[in-house]
Specification:
The structure holds 2 protein chains of 2 kinds.
Chain A lengths: L1 H25 L4 H6 L21 H4 L19 E2 L9 H17 L3 E6 L6 H21 L7 E7 L10 H7 L1 E5 L2
Parallel strand pairs in A: 2-3
Antiparallel strand pairs in A: 1-4, 2-4
Helix pairs in contact in A: 4-5
Chain B lengths: L5 E12 L12 E11 L2 E5 L3 E4 L2 H20 L3 E4 L10 E10 L5 H4 L6 E8 L5 E7 L6 H17 L8 E6 L6 E6 L6 E2 L7 E6 L5 E8 L2 E8 L5 E5 L5 E6 L6 E5 L6 E5 L5 E4 L7 E6 L5 E6 L6 E6 L6 E2 L7 E6 L5 E8 L2 E8 L6 E2 L8 E6 L5 E6 L6 E6 L4 E4 L7 E6 L2
Parallel strand pairs in B: 3-5, 3-6, 4-6
Antiparallel strand pairs in B: 1-2, 6-7, 7-8, 9-10, 9-32, 10-11, 12-13, 13-14, 14-15, 16-17, 17-18, 18-19, 20-21, 21-22, 22-23, 24-25, 25-26, 26-27, 28-29, 29-30, 30-31
Helix pairs in contact in B: 1-3
Classes of the chains: A alpha+beta, B mainly beta.
Chain lengths: 183, 431
């Protein structure tokens, strides 16, 4: 909870810095004025704006690259990984897919939550543990490919958030996965 | 004190040679049943309608509620057969009778604006001698009628059997689908369903504190698990602990001063003892395997839990310092969710056979293993003991959706407790 809050505060701060940078560009560099202008912090008048190291290169931030923090990982090419029944090890196909995921994640540079999922068979409790094993296996492999460990969080929903309904092999196969989401 | 008569019935080694056709899938044609169990001869009780000495419709309603709730309570205990008229003496051998009076205000509150008290007097008598054995007088609020009847039922059960009744117990469970599950609580007889959480999250695996004042449960905040506690008198939720990874499977110690919990902060789930404020007291397991689902023995000296260190999840017992590990299950390739019975002599758990999960009960020594739910039960999971040590609640999808069922391990009878369209899982019976 703390970490989530800090992340949000940081995003908020970066956002404010962006606004400051934009306004300062438009307003021919009257930075000092902008910072004290209450309109600049419209939604959050009480937030204090930290010293802006990022603002030194505003043109980079303003570039047309996607705002990854607002996107679902699937929207920038990150794909889910599937598992065999009762298993949490990665096969060759999964490892290939994770290499592509790793490139997209490094490019995005934002925090991603990896959630482990199981099919409905077995107990709620053991499936929570199995789901976490799957999520951790994926995280460990991504870290070995150079993705920053601090960028990856893991959780498990066990069998409680199925992607496909039904008690058959097709549905079960769809539900044994590690899914990537925006935290 | 008059006690329920107890007999031991033994059905040993019944061989039945069946024709080859019906056993086409079996390796041989022998069915062996070896059951050694206790059976109880029930006590027959006559429950008379209560006399309404004074009062309006609400008094008459109170009288009806009293007799119907007490009748149901005595039947659900498994200890009694109940009749309602002397004529039933043809088939029932009455030993006791219950009768009483209701005295309320002459006009009901909605007519007079007065909220006069209703006085209820209930008697337990011997039959046919009519010797007064017990009298209880109550002055309940209108909202307390069922609880009043349950209280009297507990007194009757305790007087007649020496056992504590479970008529005021409740069951907390998780209901929902689509990534959202809320905690609900229901009286042990299926009445009084109440939702406890509404936070658009998964809320799972509740555990009652011994005095019933708190329910520890697992929930998620921004995708990450934590253990929380719900105050049952005001509904307020507080955070207990939220370490990185899993924080689940809580089981309150019988003294109420600590809990068992599985945490995966070390990289994989291990069993810990923590305080109700979330301070870690001791880590009890160390391995690379999954170690989850702890349950205290009634005295709080030992605990049973699940470990897959051999490659499949199996049950183990250790003491409260983590020492003395011994494996409890050797049958089945998937055993989990063990719970110790209130008097310590039995353990109930879930086992997976093929695609289905079944409920198994056995002695806490591992002997007399017995599957309770085969065949038509499809999946049955998450067992929890009633305080009487005779009934178990669990979730089963035998109707197509997971609902809760109460199973009597003495008679092998069952009743359906919940009837929702959304799945009900992880029930916990109050102590």
């Amino acid at each position: 909870m703390n970490r989530g809050w800090i992340t949000r505060s940081m995003m908020l701060a970066v956002g404010l810095v962006l606004i400051v940078a934009l306004v300062s560009l438009a307003g021919c560099g009257k930075k000092a004025e902008v910072e004290t202008d209450p309109a600049a912090g419209a939604g959050e008048p009480t937030e204090e704006v930290p010293p802006p190291p990022v603002a030194e290169e505003p043109e980079v931030v303003v570039d047309e690259g996607p705002d990854y923090a607002t996107l679902d990982p699937s929207e920038y090419g990150v794909q889910d990984v599937y598992f065999a029944f009762d298993q949490y090890d990665l096969d060759d196909e999964s490892m290939g897919l994770l290499s592509r995921n790793a490139r997209a994640m490094k490019e995005a540079g934002v925090v991603i939550l990896i959630s482990g999922h199981c099919d409905e068979r077995g107990t709620i409790e053991y499936n929570l543990a199995l789901g976490e094993k799957r999520a951790r296996a994926v995280r460990d492999y991504l870290v070995s490919l150079g993705v920053s460990a601090g960028q990856l969080k893991v959780t498990s929903y066990g069998e409680s958030k199925p992607f496909a309904q039904g008690s058959n092999e097709d549905a079960w196969a769809m539900n044994r996965r590690a899914h990537f989401e925006r935290p | 004190m008059i006690r329920t008569k107890r007999y031991i019935l033994t059905l040993a080694m019944v061989f039945a040679a069946l024709p080859g056709l019906t056993m086409a899938q079996g390796r041989n044609s022998e069915v062996i049943i070896d059951i050694t169990r206790e059976a109880f001869i029930k006590t027959d009780v006559l429950i008379n309608e209560l006399d309404v000495l004074a009062g309006g419709i609400s008094s008459a309603d109170a009288a009806t509620t009293m007799s119907s709730v007490v009748t149901n309570d005595l039947r659900l205990s498994g200890l009694f057969r109940v009749g309602h008229s002397e004529g039933d003496a043809d088939s029932l051998d009455f030993e006791f009778t219950i009768e009483g009076t209701v005295e309320g205000p002459l006009r009901d509150a909605d007519q007079t604006g007065e909220n006069g008290p209703i006085t209820i007097s209930l008697n337990l008598l011997s039959y046919p001698q009519r010797q007064l054995l017990m009298n209880k007088r109550y002055r309940p609020l209108p909202s307390q009628m069922r609880a009043t009847a349950h209280h009297f039922s507990n007194e009757v059960i305790h007087w007649l059997s020496g056992e504590a009744g479970m008529c005021l117990s409740r069951i907390v469970f998780s209901r929902g689908s689509g990534g959202r599950r809320d905690l609900y609580v229901v009286d042990y007889d299926g009445e009084g369903l109440l939702r406890l959480t509404a936070n658009r999250e998964l809320n799972l695996c509740p555990s009652w504190s011994p005095d019933g004042s708190e329910i520890a449960f697992t929930s998620y905040r921004r995708g990450e698990q934590g253990l929380f506690s719900l105050n049952t008198s005001n509904g307020k939720v507080r955070s207990i602990i939220s370490m990185e990874g899993l924080n689940y499977g809580a089981d309150w110690h019988p003294d109420g001063k600590e809990l068992l919990l599985a945490l995966s902060q070390s990289g994989n789930p291990e069993i810990y003892r923590i305080t109700p404020q979330g301070k870690i007291l001791k880590r009890l397991t160390v391995s690379k395997a999954i170690e989850i689902s702890p349950s205290w023995s009634p005295g709080g000296r030992d605990l049973v839990f699940t470990s897959d260190r051999t490659g499949t999840p199996q049950l183990y017992i250790i003491d409260s310092e983590g020492a003395g590990r011994r494996r409890l299950t050797f049958e089945g390739r998937y055993n989990d969710s063990a719970v110790w019975s209130p008097n310590g002599d039995q353990i109930v758990y879930a086992t997976r056979v093929g695609n289905y999960t079944q409920i198994v009960v056995m002695k806490s020594t591992g002997e007399n293993r017995r599957v309770l739910t085969g065949g038509r039960w499809r999946n049955s999971e998450d067992p929890s003991w009633a305080p009487d040590g005779r009934h178990i609640v669990f979730a089963s999808d035998r109707s197509g959706v997971f609902n809760l069922y109460v199973f009597d391990v003495v008679e092998d009878s069952f009743r359906q407790l919940t009837f929702g369209n959304d799945p009900d899982i992880t029930p916990a019976w109050s102590h």
